[in-house]
Amino acid sequence: MSTPDDPPAVSWTTRRKQAEEQCAALLLRPDEEVAGEVVRLANDPKWEVRKVVAESMAAFPEKVFRELSILFASERNALVAAAFERSLARRSPVADIAPAHADLLQGEVAKITHKFGPDAADAALKFAERCTFLHIRSAGHDLKNILSYLKLDPDALIKEPANAKHKSKIQRYKNGRDYLHRLSEMMEVYSSPLDIRMQPEDLVEMAFEAITAAREQVEKGGVDSTSVACDVEAPESVIVPVSRYHIAMALTNLVKNGIQAYALPDSKFGEGRVLIRIIKDAECVTITVADGGCGVAPGDLQNLVQFIPGGTAKRGGSGYGLPICRRYLQAHGGQIWLESTKNKGMTVTVTIPCNTCDAVL
Ligand SMILES: Nc1ncnc2c1ncn2[C@@H]1O[C@H](COP(=O)(O)OP(=O)(O)O)[C@@H](O)[C@H]1O
Ligand SMILES: [Mg+2]
């Protein structure tokens, strides 16, 4: 029923026109407001409106493209679904990534050669190549694992969509698809250039915010993690210059790991505690995030401290959380250490220099 506060209803032809305009605008001005409008129109009840968005999305920024892909993956109208498929096929897999900066890399090699000589530059190149192989191999291994988990017989599903025995397969497919999304998001976060903007921030306040953010992420699927208490032991405030986004993400990842260390089967959590301690001295701030959860075996710890992303994950994680933490801390001139005993817990110690002007940015 309409109320006086309802926005005036516009006809679907007007909404289709709006969709055309907003999609064109998003290509010229890729900001949140236009993106929000496009996503709203992609949810329109009229298929003619949705089809305009599905047809135009191939060149949209990655974040919107991903959001729309999830939406259109369950599209029921055949014409909209076909438009979406065409956009998927048109989109370059690396649409957002600039072509490899060969000149830039050459420039780096030239700088090393100039400063340390050709042998050092050669060794640095070999080392970089080995790191690249390790990272690609680990990412390839993770993707292959997910794809084999996703092995389904699509013909059987198409022929007998209502067959009850397909239900668990469809659920498995959805889990795998969500996992792939999480993994690709973390891969992107890990490998994106760092935009570090230092400002004085209160790390104590950020620790409390990290607890809230970590809980929100852990509880996303409607699970309850309140049996795991999260506390902060620190002076009233500890103010140092940091890049808020990066340190917030690092702390959130650590608290999230601490809470998840108490995970039980069936999305439940045991009783436990994650404690963040913050101590500041003249030179640096030391933050420890300690839990008494499942911990890891010595062999697993050895792998984790290599900080090679992927491959280390258990229970649906991505294995990118700790490598991202280390990358962000190193960008502040900081460090990270892990200690753990199987079934006793883990303590992660992080340092951030107080004078981050010296940081390697
Ligand atoms: N506090 C912790 N206690 C027990 N295991 C942990 C803890 N932190 C990390 N791990 C183990 O290390 C793996 C990798 O962690 P991380 O790099 O954060 O990626 P993710 O959490 O996405 O898997 C986790 O899957 C988990 O097995
Ligand atoms: Mg993690």
Shape field? globular
Number of helices: 13
Classify the secondary structure makeup into a structural class: alpha+beta
Q: Using the 3D structure, state the CATH architecture of the largest domain.
A: 2-Layer Sandwich
From the alpha carbons, calculate the radius of gyration and give it in angstroms: 24 Å
Identify the bound ligands.
adenosine-5'-diphosphate, magnesium ion
Give average pLDDT, whole number. Answer: 87
Proportion of beta-strand residues: 5-15%
Profile the largest sheet: 5 strands, mixed
Structural write-up:
The protein is of the alpha+beta class. It has 3 domains: 12-90; 114-191; 198-358, Heat Shock Protein 90 (2-Layer Sandwich). 53% of the residues lie in helices and 15% in strands. The protein has helices spanning 12-28, 32-42, 47-56, 62-73, 78-90, 102-116, 118-149, 154-159, 167-191, 203-218, 244-260, 298-304, 321-330, and strands at 198-202, 228-233, 239-243, 263-264, 268-269, 272-280, 284-291, 335-341, 345-353. Strands 2-6-7-9-8 form a 5-stranded mixed sheet. Helix 1 runs antiparallel to helix 2 (32-42). The radius of gyration is 24 Å and the shape is globular. The model is unreliable at 1-5 and 357-361 (pLDDT under 50).
